[in-house]
Specification:
Layout: E1 18-21, E2 37-41
Antiparallel strand pairs: 1-2
Length: 62
């Protein structure tokens, strides 16, 4: 399971906010069982209006 190759990561500053949908079920390795899907872009929110990923499980207002 998993990807055998090393993946490159580029850290970026966010420009926009997007709402995503995710099934929170995890496999035995702790990974999400289903892919995350884009629901919509949120032009009514700025990146500073929402907590960073992993900072909590409360949904953003709106």
């Amino acid at each position: 399971m998993g990807h055998p190759e090393t993946l490159e990561v580029a850290v970026v500053d966010p420009d926009l906010v997007a709402e995503v949908g995710a099934d929170v079920s995890l496999d035995t390795a702790g990974r999400w069982r289903q892919p995350v899907g884009l629901l919509r872009v949120r032009p009514d929110l700025a990146p500073g209006d929402v907590p960073p990923f992993g900072a909590g499980n409360e949904p953003a207002s709106g």
